[in-house]
TrEMBL record, chain A:
Similarity remark: Belongs to the binding-protein-dependent transport system permease family. HisMQ subfamily.
One MF term in the entry's GO annotations: transmembrane transporter activity
Protein name as catalogued: ABC transporter permease
A Gene Ontology term for the protein's cellular component: ATP-binding cassette (ABC) transporter complex
Alphabetical keyword list: Cell inner membrane, Cell membrane, Membrane, Transmembrane, Transmembrane helix, Transport
Main location: membrane
Pfam family, one: BPD_transp_1
Residue ranges of every copy of the ABC transmembrane type-1 domain listed in the record: 20-221
Annotated TM spans: 20-44, 65-90, 102-121, 158-182, 202-221
Subcellular location(s) per record: Cell inner membrane; Cell membrane
UniProtKB/TrEMBL annotation, chain B:
Originating species: Paracoccus methylarcula
Matching CDD domains: TM_PBP2 (cd06261)
Record-level Gene Ontology MF annotations: transmembrane transporter activity
Keywords, alphabetical: Cell inner membrane, Cell membrane, Membrane, Transmembrane, Transmembrane helix, Transport
Protein name in the entry: ABC transporter permease
Mode of membrane association: Multi-pass membrane protein
Species lineage: Bacteria, Pseudomonadati, Pseudomonadota, Alphaproteobacteria, Rhodobacterales
Family: Belongs to the binding-protein-dependent transport system permease family. HisMQ subfamily.
Amino acid sequence: MLELLSYGDTGWGDEILRGLAITIQLAIVTLPVGLCLGFMAAFASMSRYRALRALGFGYTTLMRGLPEILTLFVVYNGVGLLWNMLLKWWNPDAPGSDFSPFWAGVVALGMVFGAFACEVLRGAFNSLDHGQAEAGRAIGMTRAKIFRRIQLPQLWRFALPGLGNLWINMLKDTALVSIIALNDLMRMTSVAVGVTKQPFTFYLLACLLYWAMCILSELVLARMEKHANRGVRRA
Amino acid sequence: MHPIETLLDSWPKLLDGTLMTLKLTLMGALIAGLLSPGFALIRSHASPLAQAPLRLYISFMRGTPILAQLFLIFYGSGQFRPVLQEWGLWNFFRDPFNCALLAFALNSTAYQTEILRGGIQGVAHGEIEAARAIGMNRLKILRRVVFPHAYRIAWPALGNEVILLMKASALASVVTVFDLMAQTRRVFSRSFDFSVYLWAALIYLCLTAAFVLVWRLAERRLGRHILARQQPRPGAPTPRETQA
């Protein structure tokens, strides 16, 4: 049993740890992409212009309503087709290339994260004290400065619990990229299962690793929330 | 191929898949819905020691990907094949539909339990005291006071959970259950016609939209006594008139 999980040629410990590293990499690269999309969508859906608002609403409704795996396939196959079409148009002799599963994962998971983050950020923005922005304007701050110095620091505090949940969901959703052949934790586990014929042992191990990551994330998030709320007076 | 032609070509498969997706989602949600009230009561009333296994189960279900849970049940059961055969359970675990249903039901039970616990804890204490004061026994209080309130409070969150379950049911395609996602992938792999994905997306959106509508109607029905108080119907007596 321990031999199977050991590090080196006989065990699967190193392969699975490498898969775990890919999973963590994917999640960490996706986070800023998703946050940027979330901020952009949130600004769009609170904009003065109706067209932008409709765009924001359409994006969040679509992304929140579709199964993540469908989004992933649409991005992986669709963007791949589009990319090859562009490539052929640019240079008819170019060999067709596959869209990398890693970046397909980043784009798809980032788009899903962005849609949910948009709602979290919008909610946080609406719970800001309106008087503070007015006070900022009264002493002559520009809108950018008001946003940076007054609204953003507090937005963080209100949005953190929601964004934390999204982070944990996204961490779990990274398992989906194993279906499009990225060598993440889930897929390395499947490879190990294929060789050792011990499916329960290895999938349980994968579950425990994901579980550990989620619990660790929760602990870190709880500390971050405490830190973000340090200046708040308790009743 | 024109997108409309694609639809005309592949609609029987997509319809088959849609029905399978609906079956999987509704059965999973229903099984979880039957299990969760009991668990929610344990979570809100039992001693911490009695809760420990339940908390562990819920934490595991919420902390691991559904895909991993599905693989654990579907492929993992193979490791215990002799034992399962001895118990006569092997036929159950051999069928991918059963495994997917089991995984989704177990997963959804964990989420629904937590949601319903929130609802039970949200019931105003005075209502329970009032029920006790007029001599209702504990079972009757649960049936007539606690659960009606708890479900009303938890209803929107339960609806979200069922929608999440429907989205998760697309994962069953990975273990060869022919739901909407699997049929879509099958059509795509034969024709490389991208528009079939867009049709699938549209079907998923319609399913979600229809579900949201039905759920909201039910919500209105559950909360009709509150709604009536907030906005009196034209011509209906106001609360003050009824009192007099």
